[in-house]
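TA notes, week 10

Several of you asked for a full example with nothing omitted. So below is the full record: structure tokens for the whole chain, then the designed sequence directly under it. When grading your own attempts, check the secondary structure regions first.
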């Protein structure tokens, strides 16, 4: 049986028909930029994230850059970021001319280390920091990190590309953030039919600045009050997302059910679980474990591949160890916890509407590999 790592074609009944009708309708009117679909999407996103303002843009990386610019991050400003995150977080800092400093993570949840965050703030006096909410949740120290940033006048941007639909202490995880972002890349929990992104905030001035920067720094149509760039979400992408939102809760429920089956059946000492903190209602974005025994990890990946089961290594290298970081990175604060996770992480297939046979086939192969490995070790 072939089980893909992710399958973007598990559409609900009539989803494609609704999408085709919407494409035809918008195309017949040449309604490709702005308009009702974008306005509706931004209102839907504001409601779901419990923010007053939602500004759509071209992609998730732009969303972070727009947020940093709105926070007045400029050339030479120091910005903290997790050492365990996607490269785009680093790129966003560099692309606005700021100086990145990586901070180590916690092994238990993969989130940014509070201890090393405080140390980095004290040592480098950064102007801003980016906190990445990975795997559908955030650091268990989210509120403490927010409090530390606030006390020290550090503008905290929260990268929520993987946590859309998650809740923190019963509220949308974005609600209490100064400013936060998401990506609508197709593989995300809320994915578009291409690239897209959004910025969320309850601050009127920040929202105004983000929208202005995303539209060439316009004050009026041909009057430009700042240097921005073109980062607008098209109407077709907005329409696709609006249709998807009608099924969003069902997709989250499906993800959570699959994740629960994995965790119940793969409770082995040889596979360490990285889990959401207790105060986080995670969205089931990803099944993530780490395997400290390299030989077993290699054997398991081999068996998954041989049995046509997709898997991932998210992420296989830390930011500070990337070749492209060397010319820009000022420093790293902390130890090598992020490196430990990167070298041992393994992600099993998890996406909406996985079938029972698919999930249990993955579990069967993992269990067989574990038993074979342990028996061989005894010989």
């Amino acid at each position: 049986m072939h089980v893909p790592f992710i399958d973007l074609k598990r559409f609900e009944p009539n989803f494609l028909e609704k999408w085709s009708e919407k494409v035809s309708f918008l195309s017949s009117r040449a309604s490709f930029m702005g308009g009702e679909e974008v306005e509706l999407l931004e209102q839907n996103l504001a409601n779901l994230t419990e923010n007053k303002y939602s500004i759509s843009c071209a992609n998730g990386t732009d969303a972070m850059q727009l947020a940093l610019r709105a926070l007045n991050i400029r050339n030479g400003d120091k910005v903290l970021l997790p050492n365990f995150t996607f490269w785009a977080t680093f790129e966003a800092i560099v692309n606005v001319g700021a100086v990145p400093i990586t901070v180590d993570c916690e092994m238990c949840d993969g989130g940014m280390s509070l201890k090393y965050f405080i140390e980095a703030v004290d040592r480098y006096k950064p102007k801003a920091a980016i906190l990445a909410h990975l795997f559908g949740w955030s650091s268990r120290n989210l509120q403490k990190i927010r409090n530390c940033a606030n006390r020290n006048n550090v503008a905290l941007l929260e990268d929520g590309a993987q946590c859309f639909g998650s809740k923190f202490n019963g509220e949308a995880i974005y609600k209490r953030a100064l400013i936060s972002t998401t990506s609508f890349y197709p593989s995300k929990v809320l994915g578009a039919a291409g690239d897209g992104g959004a910025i969320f905030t309850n601050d009127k001035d920040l929202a105004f600045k983000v929208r202005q920067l995303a539209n060439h720094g316009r004050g009026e149509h041909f009057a430009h009050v700042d240097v921005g760039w073109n980062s607008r979400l098209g109407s077709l992408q907005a329409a696709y997302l609006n249709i998807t939102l009608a099924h969003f809760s069902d997709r989250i429920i499906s993800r959570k059910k699959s994740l629960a089956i994995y965790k119940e059946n793969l409770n082995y000492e040889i596979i360490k679980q990285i889990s959401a903190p207790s105060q986080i209602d995670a969205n089931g974005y990803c099944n993530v474990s780490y395997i400290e025994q390299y030989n077993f990890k290699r054997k398991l990946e081999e068996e998954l591949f041989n049995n046509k089961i997709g898997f991932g290594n998210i992420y296989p290298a830390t930011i500070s160890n990337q070749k492209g970081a060397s010319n820009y990175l000022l420093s790293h604060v902390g130890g090598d916890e992020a490196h430990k996770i990167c070298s041992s992480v393994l992600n099993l297939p998890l996406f909406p509407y996985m079938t029972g046979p698919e999930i249990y086939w993955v579990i069967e192969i993992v269990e067989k590999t574990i038993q074979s490995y342990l028996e061989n070790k005894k010989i």
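The longest strand covers residues 53-57. Use that as a sanity check on your answer.
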